[in-house]
Design brief:
This protein is mostly helical and 336 residues long. It has 11 helices and 5 strands. Helix 1 packs across helix 11 and helix 7 runs antiparallel to helix 8. The chain starts with a helix and ends with a helix. Belongs to the nematode receptor-like protein str family.
Length: 336
């Protein structure tokens, strides 16, 4: 059933993001400025993300004091084991990139409401630093993952029974990464597994920096927009209303990944860190993550007025074409 969910979400996400790209390029108000580039960049990233999710087809679960991200691998197939492992790593790294993209949107939205901030940090070519941030996070996340998440003989021994009992898979049939937070000492006691903690600490630093941008800059952006809406100039009101629409869409786009991605994955990481066995494994987290790129384009499409009008015009145009086609067909029947 999970494969059907992923296939459906991939198809729907691609269609919605292509439509959103068209709306951004053709229906955006002129006052949106260079933000269009960041919005198109995000839509293209989400198309990449949903295709990667479908190709990787990973499962996420917690076992004891380990978190596991794995995909099934067929030995001696056309797909080498190194490519299978690369898909798992890319899937994890893409999560980190999404955090940077989310933060970039809030940085830009705040800069529009604060000219001093914009001139100091985002004027001219400095604007393109927002596009570089996801790739910096990707390199950082990959380094952390390679340091503390890669499988070894100890993690193989710890997880092989779980893979066989729960998924009926041997170790040579899977590619996986797993931060294992504790290991057994010489006396059988639990001791910290330092590489896993260092790797996760680096990942948490990236997540925390994104959350800071969302909460701090988001709240300041909201206050600035409210102040601008009090202006009497109609031109200023139009600009402020547009900023409000963009901000509202961005807030909802923040809630979506928090509910579908960050909270479920946080629970899956937190419990093994404090050595609480969830006793649970399924495709639930993977399916929730697969829904994210499907739902994420919707706030922009329906909250931003010009995009909403563009969608209505598109459907009206299709309706008129069908009506004209129907009338032509009726006229032809009348001449027979």
């Amino acid at each position: 059933m999970a494969s059907y969910i992923q296939l459906a979400s991939t198809c729907v996400s691609l269609l919605l993001n292509i439509l959103l790209c068209w709306l951004i390029l053709k229906k955006s108000p002129k006052k949106m400025g260079s933000y269009k580039q960041l919005m198109v960049f995000t839509s293209v990233f989400e198309m990449y993300y949903t295709m990667l999710d479908g190709a990787a087809d990973v499962t996420v679960f917690a076992h004891g004091f380990a978190v596991v991200v794995f995909r099934e691998y067929v030995p001696n197939s056309l797909l080498p084991s190194s490519v299978s492992m690369a898909l798992v790593i890319a899937y994890c790294v893409t999560f980190g990139m999404s955090m940077a993209i989310l933060a970039s949107h809030f940085v830009y939205r705040y800069s529009v409401t604060d000219s001093t901030f914009h001139h100091r940090y985002l004027s001219g070519k400095k604007y393109y630093l927002l596009f570089m941030a996801p790739f910096v996070y990707a390199i950082w996340w990959t380094s952390a993952l390679m340091y503390g998440y890669l499988p070894n003989a100890e993690s193989d021994e710890y997880l092989k029974a779980r893979f066989l009992d729960t998924f009926d898979l041997r170790l040579d049939q899977i590619s996986y990464v797993s931060p294992k937070f504790y290991k057994y000492g010489s006396q059988g006691e639990l001791v910290f597994n330092a590489p896993a903690w260092v790797a996760v600490a680096n990942c948490l630093m990236m997540v925390t920096s994104s959350i800071f941008c969302v909460l701090y800059l988001g709240s300041k952006c909201y206050l600035n927009i409210r102040k601008h809406l009090s202006l009497q100039s109609e031109t200023s009101k139009f600009s402020a209303n547009l900023q409000k629409q963009l901000f509202n869409a961005l807030v909802i786009q923040t809630i979506i990944p928090v509910v579908l991605m960050y909270l479920p994955i946080l629970v899956f990481f937190l419990c093994p860190m404090i050595n609480v066995n969830l006793g649970y494994s399924s495709r639930f987290v993977s399916d929730m993550v697969a829904l994210y790129p499907v739902i994420d384009p919707l706030p922009n499409m329906f909250i931003i007025k010009s995009y909403r009008k563009g969608i209505i015009e598109m459907f009206n145009c299709c309706g008129r074409k069908q009506e004209v086609g129907g009338n032509s067909f009726s006229a032809k029947l009348g001449t027979i």
